[in-house]
Design brief:
six-stranded parallel β-sheet, 17 helices, about 400 residues
C-alpha cells in the first residue's frame, strides 16, 4: 500500500510567536508536515529561549515547542523588518501571532488586516483574554489565567489551592489554535477563502473547566478540592506501599468493591456491610474506607499491589514522577521516543500523539538556533547580497 503524504505537506506557516501558546500550536502544524517559519527578536529571540538551560544547555520549554521550525531574526520596530515579514506572509497559507495586546495591529499584522489583503490566508490571533472587553489589555501569563479561569480553585487539597504543574492555559489555547487552523484550512478547501481565527487563553481554559463549572452553575456548589481523592467516589485515591511507592486505585461500582474486599483486603464481608456496600456509604465513611484499603496495600510492594489489583479487576495506576515517565515501559514498548537535532546535539523527544497509520511519520525536525535560517529566508524573498548585508549592518536582521 502506497504511503500517504503528511496532511499539511505543502502548507507554509509564518509565526510571530513567543512563550508557549503560539509556539506549541505551530509545532503541532510542523508535526503534520507544515513548513513553519518562526520570526524572532534579534536580541535573544523568543524569550522562552532564556527560561532555563535544562535541556543540555537549551531551555526545556523552547525545545518542547519549537522543533522542526526555521528561525529568522528580525527587528520589527524597523519598517524593513516588518516588510520582510509581509513578504513571507504573501507566500504563506497560515499566519499565527501571540504578541501583546495591540502590538500586531500597530504593525499591520493582525488577522483582520492580513486576511483583507490575502483572502486565502488563515490568520490566527492568540491573546490572553480576547480582543475586547475590560480584560483585553491585561497581561496574561499562564498562572494568572489559571487563577482567573478558576482552575486553581479546584486543584489541590482542602486546605491549599495549587496551580497545575503544567502550563494548562497556554496548552489549552495552543490546542484550540491548532484545531482552529485545521478547521479554517478545511473551509478554505471548500470555499477558497481563509479568514481570521481568534483564540484566547481564558476562553480555552474556561472550556476545559466544563465539569466543575456546570457542577457549580447547575448544582449550586463548586466541587471540593480533594487532592488525589475523588469528591464523590470512594475508594479513589493514592495509597502508600511498603517499598515507598504509591498506587492509585478507583472503584467505580459496588461489584468492584466486593472484588476488592474479597481479593485484596481479604475481608469479603465488607462487600455486604451496610457501612461500605454502596458508594454513597463508602463516601460517607471515607476515612474508614481509606484506612481499610491503606492497610491492605501498605503491606505490599507497588508492583505486587498493581498485580493483585489488576487480577481483581480493579482499575489502578502507579503514581510516577517525571523521570519515571521518561522511562515508562508503555512508551518504550510502543517505540514513542525519537531523537531530534539541536544546537547542542541530539535530544530525546516524544512522537506527537496524533498517529496516522499508513502515512508518513512526523518529521521531528531540529530545534533551530536563533536566526539559523535568516539568510536563506531573506534570499527566498528575493533580497540581494547587498540588501542582506545592509539589514545585518543596521541590526534589522540577525
Amino acid at each position: 500500500m502506497e504511503s500517504q503524504p503528511l496532511p499539511l505537506d505543502g502548507i507554509t506557516v509564518v509565526a510571530v510567536e513567543q512563550a508557549v501558546a503560539a509556539p506549541f500550536a505551530t509545532r503541532q502544524l510542523a508535526d503534520l508536515g507544515a513548513r513553519v517559519i518562526k520570526v524572532e527578536r534579534i536580541d535573544g529571540g523568543d524569550f522562552a529561549r532564556g527560561y532555563d538551560s535544562a535541556a543540555g544547555g537549551l531551555a526545556s520549554h523552547f525545545v518542547w515547542c519549537n522543533r522542526g521550525k526555521e528561525s529568522i531574526a528580525l527587528d520589527l520596530k524597523d519598517a524593513r523588518g516588518v516588510a520582510v515579514v509581509r513578504q513571507l506572509i504573501a507566500g504563506a497559507d497560515v499566519f499565527v501571532q501571540n504578541l501583546a495586546h495591540g502590538a500586531a495591529a500597530r504593525l499591520g499584522l493582525d488577522a483582520a488586516t492580513l486576511c483583507a489583503a490575502h483572502p486565502r490566508l488563515v490568520a490566527v490571533d492568540i491573546s490572553g483574554y480576547g480582543p475586547s472587553g475590560p480584560y483585553a489589555g491585561k497581561r496574561a501569563y499562564d498562572m494568572l489565567v489559571q487563577c482567573e479561569a478558576g482552575l486553581v480553585s479546584v486543584t489541590g487539597t482542602p486546605g491549599q489551592p495549587v496551580k497545575a504543574g503544567i502550563p494548562a492555559a497556554d496548552i489549552a489555547a495552543a490546542m484550540y489554535a491548532f484545531s482552529g487552523v485545521l478547521a479554517a484550512l478545511v473551509r478554505r478547501g471548500v470555499s477558497g477563502r481563509g479568514g481570521p481565527v481568534e483564540v484566547s487563553m481564558l476562553d480555552a481554559l474556561a472550556e476545559w473547566m466544563g465539569h466543575p463549572l456546570h457542577h457549580a452553575m447547575h448544582g449550586g456548589t463548586p466541587p471540593a478540592r480533594t487532592g488525589l481523592a475523588h469528591a464523590v467516589i470512594a475508594p479513589y485515591d493514592a495509597y502508600p506501599t511498603a517499598d515507598g511507592g504509591r498506587v492509585l486505585l478507583s472503584v467505580q461500582n459496588d461489584r468492584e468493591w466486593r472484588r476488592l474486599a474479597e481479593q485484596v483486603i481479604g475481608r469479603p464481608e465488607l462487600g455486604t456491610d451496610p457501612d461500605f456496600a454502596t458508594n454513597a456509604a463508602r463516601v460517607e465513611n471515607r476515612e474508614r474506607t481509606d484506612a481499610l484499603v491503606g492497610e491492605a496495600l501498605g503491606g505490599l510492594g507497588a508492583d505486587e499491589a498493581v498485580v493483585l489489583l489488576e487480577r481483581a479487576g480493579v482499575a489502578c495506576a502507579r503514581l510516577r514522577d517525571v523521570q519515571q515517565l521518561a522511562e515508562h515501559p508503555q512508551l518504550a514498548a510502543r517505540e514513542r521516543w525519537r531523537e531530534v537535532g539541536s544546537p547542542v546535539g541530539p535530544l530525546r523527544a516524544l512522537l506527537p500523539p496524533i498517529t496516522l497509520p499508513g502515512g508518513g511519520e512526523a518529521p521531528m525536525g531540529d530545534v533551530p538556533a536563533l536566526g539559523e535560517h535568516t539568510e536563506a529566508l531573506l534570499r527566498a524573498v528575493g533580497m540581494a547580497d547587498v540588501e542582506i548585508a545592509a539589514l545585518r549592518r543596521d541590526g534589522v536582521a540577525a
